[in-house]
Amino acid sequence: MRFDVLTLFPGIFEGYLSESLLKDAIERGALEVCLHNMRDWANDKHNTMDDRPFGGGPGMVLKVDRIVPCVEEVQTYAERPGRLVMLTPQGRPLTQRVVEELAQEERILLLCGRYEGFDQRVVEILQPDEISIGDYVLNGGEVAAAVVIDSVMRLIPGVLGDENSAVVDSFSSGNRLLEEDQYTRPREYRGLTVPEILLSGDHGAIERWRSSNRREKTLARRPDLLDGEETKIDEDEKKKKKKKRPKKTEEPEAVAESENVAEAKPSETPEAVDATETNVDV
Ligand code: ADE
Question: What is the pLDDT of residues 83-108, one digit of tens each?
Fold first, then answer.
C-alpha cells in the first residue's frame, strides 16, 4: 500500500516513520510512505501558500491555486490517482469501520491542512473524503494523517508480526467491544495476582472468562457500544421471528429474545458493526 502525504511540514513525519513497526513495514516493502512538501507548489518569490480570508476574520486560508495543482500533480506520481483524504475537524469521524474501508485501497493521498483550513473551492474541485480524528482542533492535519497511517497499516497483511493480532483489537471486525484485561509474569506483584482461570490451561474456560471480561469492561466504560448492539440484536431477532411465524402466537416472546441476546456473539452480528459505527466516538 502506498500513502502520499501532502503537507507544509514533512519533517513532522520523519521520526514517526523511522521507528518500530512502521519502519520495518517500509523496509520490507509492505508499505510505502511518500512525503510531499506542498510549499514546492508555491510559485511566487515569497513561497506564499496562504492568504487572508475574504470577509475578514482571524487566521489564514490555504490557497486554492496552490493546493489544487499540487494534489493533481501528486496524483500522477503513481499508476492510479488513489483515494484523496483531507484531514479536517469537519470531516466524518474516523472509526475502525472507516479504517477497514481505507485499508482496502492501494493508494491513499493524505492532504494536511494548517491555519484556518483550505479555501472551500479545494473541496469542491477535488472532492476529497474529509476525515476527522475527533471533536477537537489540532494545529494541523499532520497528527491526524499519522493516526490514519497508523491505524490503517495494522490491517495490511504482513505488516504486523502476528496477522491475527489486529483482528482481536478493540473495535476491529473480530471484536466490536473493548479488549479484555491482559496479564503476564510475574504471577503476583505487590499483592495483586493474575486471575486463576488464566493459569488453568482450560482454553474453553479462558475464552469464556475473556468474553465476559470484554462485556463487563464495555458495560462499565462504553455502555453505548453494548446498548446499541443488544438493541440491534433484539430487532433482528424480532424480524426473524416474524418471518418464521406469520400468524400471531401466544409464545413468551420477551423471554426467548433475552435468551438469544445472551447467546449472540457481538463479533458475529453485522448489526454490532452498525452499532459500533453509529455509537463510537473516536
Ligand atoms: N485538523 C485539525 N484538527 C483535526 C481533527 N480533529 N481531525 C482531523 N484533522 C484535523
Answer: 999 999 999 999 999 999 999 999 99
